[in-house]
Amino acid sequence: MKSLEENIGYLFKDKELLKKALTHTSYAYEKGVESNEKLEFLGDSILEFITSIYIYQKYPKLKEGEMTKVRATVVCEESLYKIATKLRFNEFLYLGKSEIKGKEQIRKAILADSVEAVIAAIYLDSNLEEARKFIISNLEEEIRNATEHVGQKDYKTVLQEKLQEHGNTSIKYVIIDEKGPDHEKSFVAKVEWNGKKLAIGEGKSKKAAEMEAARKALENFKTNN
Question: What is the tens place of the pLDDT at every residue in 192-221?
Fold first, then answer.
């Protein structure tokens, strides 16, 4: 567990609390111990609370609806799964025989739920501030990326609808370059239509770069028509 604590960035006083946070119901049922379900319930509330405060304070210009969209984008199974994967939770989970299919095949939901349980465990073992540190350190970039295009028109959807007017179409987005250091990275994306390059866009996240490429492609259509 020591290496996991290093990954998490928090040293537990109560090691059993961390173990419980990583105990899936399948294992708990087989061994007759308590699972991480109750911790997951608490962690879910803490995660949403802390994320809401951070978005409210860090991005005061966002409207209420925009803040809700940003939070929904980052407080989701996919984001939590990424955290669990990055911190190698898959190597430490306690799973029952029904769920053991190899460490690389653990269901996303199980890994995502374990992150919420660990958040609650950190809170119970220390305080809300320690839980906040864990949450923000792992979601700060996701939140920043989400705010970059919130409120913007979904250019990718508009482009797809426009191209579909021409019949069957194959739209592909490709990240062709990455620039800058890890803490200030930008991406370059290319959008192709039936194998033909339409435009190139740049952004601080892959999604933002793809959106910009779609926006430029739409501009090109207006110019040429």
Answer: 988 889 999 998 888 888 988 998 998 887
Q: Position of tokens 């839980």?
A: 131
Classified by CATH at the fold level, domain 2-149 comes out as Ribonuclease iii, N-terminal Endonuclease Domain; Chain A (1.10.1520)
Most trustworthy range by pLDDT among 47-56, 72-81, 95-104, 138-147: 47-56
Shortest CA distance to 203 belongs to which of 160, 156, 139, 169?
A: 156
List of residues 6+ apart from 46 with CB closer than 8 A: 119, 120, 123, 128, 131, 135
44 included as an active-site residue: yes
Catalytic hit among 6, 30, 37, 44:
44
For domain 155-224, give the CATH number: 3.30.160.20
For residue 184, indicate whether it is catalytic.
no
Beta strands in 111-170 (DSSP E): none
Point out the catalytic residue in the list 40, 113, 116, 210: 116
